[in-house]
Amino acid sequence: MKPRQKGILAFLARDADARLFCYANAQVRKKDQNDEILRFIEFWEQRHGGPPRELVFDSRLTTHANLGRINARGIDFLTLRKRSKSLLDAIATLPQSDWKQVRLNNVGRIYRTPRVLDQRVQISGYPEDIRQLAVCDLGHEQPTLLLTNQMKTPASQLVDRYARRMVIENAIADAIDFFHMDALSAAVPMKIDLDLQLTLMASGLYRLLAVRIGNGKQTAKSRTLFRNFIKAPADITIGNDSIEVRIGRRANNPFLLNAAYDETDIAVPWLQERRLRISFL
Predict the structure, then answer these.
(1) What Å distances lie between residue 128 and 143, 157, 238, 267, CA to CA?
(2) Buried/exposed code over 159-172 (b: 16+ C-beta within 10 A; e: otherwise)
(3) Which of 138, 89, 85, 88 is nearest to 109 (CA)?
(4) CA 202 to each of CA 20, 33, 103, 177: distance values in angstroms, whole numbers, following the listed order
(5) Among residues 211, 179, 167, 189, which one has the least CA distance to residue 6?
(6) Can you tell me the distance from the alpha carbon of 70 to that of 67, in angstroms, rounded to the nearest whole number?
(7) CA–CA distance, 241 with 272 (Å, rounded to integer)
């Protein structure tokens, strides 16, 4: 029998507006995993002076009781609900007239007009009624179930917003593909946590590069950015007061010139305040 391989639980949060990972913890223990979202809220308050406006997350992230705690803090949330057979059977018995068709803006054209069943329901551990949206015609055989404390927001906006969560999953998939986030390994947990933090820092730098370049590159994958802009020959000269980087001729250099990288002139503190300058052949 092969010995079981040890693993870790990692918690990641991504800022929807900045499109950057803003929080990570690679030392989450199984007994504490349901409360990690509360620790993230505390972290956000320390950094920004107030709670996040809205949290969008998967159904397995936390408990119904913690949803009540999030609601009590005045934070909007939107999450999936686990589809049980009894719950789906109960929804199937409702008349078709209870379903309303809505129009979405941020999903594939084929799924822009799903049908939504908008209900107020009770769930165990949550102190009051909660809003449940059952959504059909989104490309799944069974309806997608959403839970939220946003009672007045139009259903189409909520479904639209949850669909954007797929962008976050794509970002994690990109980190796994290029930075091998799922293959971090070390002898001690501290090293695992450091690996994850460095990986997220690298991912963030690639996103900042993409945003600065613009011209449709904002959504490019990290592997594409590396191939087109990072993996390039260059002559590096380290002088007494400067570091000169001369990048060879490449088809994508005009994007870097348009982003004003040839005007780079910044101090590098850890290299005795030498000035970094970039030029192109």
Answers:
(1) 24, 23, 65, 56
(2) bbbbbebeebeebe
(3) 138
(4) 11, 26, 37, 13
(5) 189
(6) 5
(7) 8
Q: Which two tokens stand for residue 42?
A: 């505390």
Residue 45 has what pLDDT?
A: 93
What does the pLDDT look like over 23-34, one tens digit per residue? Answer: 878 778 888 889
Q: Which residue stretches of the chain are H helix?
A: 36-48, 64-72, 85-92, 155-163, 165-179, 189-213, 222-225, 253-258
Residue percentage of the chain with pLDDT more than 70: 85
Cα(86)–Cα(198) distance, rounded to whole angstroms?
Answer: 45
Q: What angle, rounded to 10 degrees, do the helices at 36-48 and 64-72 form?
A: 20
- Determine phi and psi for 16, rounding to 5 degrees: -65, -35
- Report the alpha-carbon distance of residue 234 to residue 74 in Å, rounded: 52
Q: Is the entire prediction scored with pTM above 0.85?
A: no
Residue with tokens 């293959």: 183
Indicate the pairing of strand 234-238 with strand 242-247: antiparallel
Which residues neighbour 4 within 8 Å (Cβ) at sequence distance 6 or greater? none
Cα torsion at 87, 92, 93, 97 (round to 10°)?
A: 130
Q: Which H/E stretch holds residue 258? A: helix 253-258
Per residue in 250-266, pLDDT tens? 888 889 889 888 888 88
CB 45 within 8 A of CB 55: no
Q: Tokens in use for 72?
A: 């009590």
* pLDDT band at residue 37 under the 50/70/90 scheme: very high
* Amino acid sitting at position 139: G
Residue 79 has a CB neighbour count (10 Å cut-off) of 22
Tell me how far apart the alpha carbons of residues 201 and 197 are, in angstroms, rounded to a whole number: 6
Neighbours of 19 (CB within 10 A): 17
pLDDT of residue 124: 92
